[in-house]
Amino acid sequence: MDINKTKIKMVVDTREKSHKHITDVWDKGIKIYPSQHEKKEGKKAYYTKPIQYFKQEKGLKTGDFTICVQLPSGKQINFKDKIVIERKASLAELVGNLNDTKSMDQEGLNRFERELKRSADLGIKMIVLVEVGGGYSKANMGIFRHDVLSKMRPLSYQAKIFSLKARYGFELVYLDKRDSAKYIYEELYYFAREYLKNIEGN
């Protein structure tokens, strides 16, 4: 199945409130830059058509964003059971999730780890997107917030993150906030495109 023969929409979980910097870009279209060679030839950046999206009224099982595809037959494939992106607005938010002891259950898992476990148990590809440029370097230096001195040791942070990645198989991406809209769209779009190559085209 060719994805260009389908209709696609990004899916935003209704519980995801701080997404305006992402949906504003989608409303306008994503800016595509030319190569350095093309720039020398006078070619300029341009915008794609607006990216369609809708809010998942009942909420996603896990994550904040996914994609939905409508085939020519009218059948819809919602990828909420296949791939999701969980957005964290900062390193501080992620550190808070890691150290959240108030939401611990009887198994010793807090809310964040339960979500990682749920996605793994359901076979859903989970990508945790942290909106901070140079996030890995900042974490290594212990710069989790600029306004408050963090008590968390960089080694402890990396130990927790890499242990959870090994345990639940999720991906972790550090990215400048201004690139989030494009990244989310491309990650989900190309995942769907590869998936559709393996199904019948109707």
Topology:
Layout: E1 7-13, H1 20-28, E2 31-32, H2 36-40, E3 46-47, E4 53-56, E5 65-70, E6 76-78, E7 83-88, H3 91-98, H4 111-121, E8 125-131, H5 135-140, H6 154-168, E9 171-175, H7 180-196
Parallel strand pairs: 1-4, 7-8, 8-9
Antiparallel strand pairs: 1-5, 2-3, 5-6
Q: Can you offer a commentary on this structure?
A:
The protein has 202 residues and is of the alpha/beta class. Helices cover 35% and strands 21% of the residues. The chain contains seven helices and nine strands. It has helices at 20-28, 36-40, 91-98, 111-121, 135-140, 154-168, 180-196; strands spanning 7-13, 31-32, 46-47, 53-56, 65-70, 76-78, 83-88, 125-131, 171-175. The strands form three sheets. It has a four-stranded mixed β-sheet, with helices on one face. It has a three-stranded parallel β-sheet with strand order 7-8-9, sandwiched between helices. Strand 5 and strand 6 form a beta hairpin. The model has no long low-confidence stretch (mean pLDDT 93).
Short note summarizing the structure:
The protein has 202 residues and is α/β, with parallel strands linked by helices. The protein has seven helices and nine strands.
Summary tags:
21% strand; single chain; 9 strands; alpha/beta; 202 residues
Shape by Cα distribution = globular
Distance between the termini: 8 Å
Mean pLDDT: 93
Low-pLDDT parts are none
Taken as a percent bin, the fraction of beta residues is 15-25%
How many strand segments? 9
Structural class by secondary-structure content: alpha/beta
**Sheet bearing the most strands, described?**
4 strands, mixed
By oligomeric state, this entry counts as single chain
Q: So how many helices?
A: 7
Portion of residues in helices?
A: 25-40%
Order of helices and strands: EHEHEEEEEHHEHHEH
State the strand order across the main sheet: 4-1-5-6
Rg, alpha carbons = 19 Å
